[in-house]
Amino acid sequence: MILPPHLGIRDGLLTIGGLDCVSLADRFGTPLYVTDQDRIVDLFHAYKAALTSRYTRVKVLYAAKANGNLAILTALSREGAGADVFSSGELSLALAAGISPDRLLFNGSSKSRADLALAVEKDVPVSVDSLDELFQLDEVAGRLGKTARIAFRVNPALDVPTHPKIATGLATSKFGIAHHLIPGAYREALGCTHIRPCGIHCHIGSQILDLEPFRKATEVMMRIAADLVAMGIDLEFIDLGGGLGIPYRHGTETAPTPEEYAAVVVPVFTQAVEALGITPELWIEPGRSLVADSTVLLTRVNSVKKAHKNFVNVDAGFNLLVRPAMYDSYHEVVAARGADRVPEETYTITGPICESGDILASDRRLPVIRAGDLIAVLDTGAYGFAMSSQYNSRPRCAEVIIHRGTPALMRRAETIEDITGTMRSPPWQS
Ligand code: LLP
Fold it and tell me: Which residue's CA lies nearest to atom 19 of ligand 1?
């Protein structure tokens, strides 16, 4: 199996950021998410360099939904990253991480008035998803005596090669405003008293391994930009979204690098802005491609069962990593001790949740596994912990972050009291 540079095998033990996973699991307990901060920072700089070598006015906004831990947001903030935030919670975390409002975009297809008010109060530009939302935002900004800076989210009606649940710019997707209705939306915005249109935004989907859809989306965006410039709109930024996939199947799958992405997308952008005589900032919003491979989920084997299949029952299930159950997604699994042993058996790795779909990995060739062994699930940094739940009343696990060979907790494990603590007895039961 091909491993990225921050993972390795030393004396048969899987390592991350130079530290062996078995010792990390012994020290911090399992299940455990372990993230290499330096890997995320390296990838951020790879994006930044690839884009700025072609166009200097660039912002890379990390999509906080992929992994909203404050330590990750802070690490990226200190390197100059912005953030795409999708809720008041993500907005608050990004601000707490030191990301200034001019490096943020508040996205969302269903924002409440409280969400809109928070964005306006904090001077964070809003990606507006409907005319209804536009008029509510105008009212909210007026009440607060402010002007809201906005972009509209364009739905480019593009079919993209990814799982249908994570394609976001299909004609049938809930996100954005149909591309042909966008100039009309900006006309409405120009008629609002407390709104200043200053950008344009799109996102076409996630885990896309082909660059062609990004090129097409950029073309659509630049055509719209031309219409907006003709309307007299001063475009301060054009946000092309995120979506670059990663090679979850190590060795057989490949993903474009940030350099390859920039080489395809930026020329379409620069040719159009030069022709229009404008110099907007180029924004992108990568999530997965910055954080996915930075993280392993370490899970302890509770029992091994030979039935119609060989099952390895581990202590993490879809409560902690829902992607396989939700999108049939593939994550490599590695025996953390004896990682260099020859595979001898075919196992299906199942979690502790009371559902048949609680499978982390099906029919994998692994060395012989016994109770007490440690399994590492790779590439779990994006939409892993972020989508976890307390289903079956299971407290969420801890998260550890490593920087230059030093590990530290970035989130403690929840306890049963964290689950019961928010529960209240109704008066008729006391
Ligand atoms: N910007 C916007 C507006 C988005 O909707 C998304 C992801 C991103 C940026 C980041 O896209 P990325 O670079 O991570 O592909 N939970 C799913 C992925 C859902 C993505 C939704 N939007 C999964 O686990 O595959």
Answer: 166
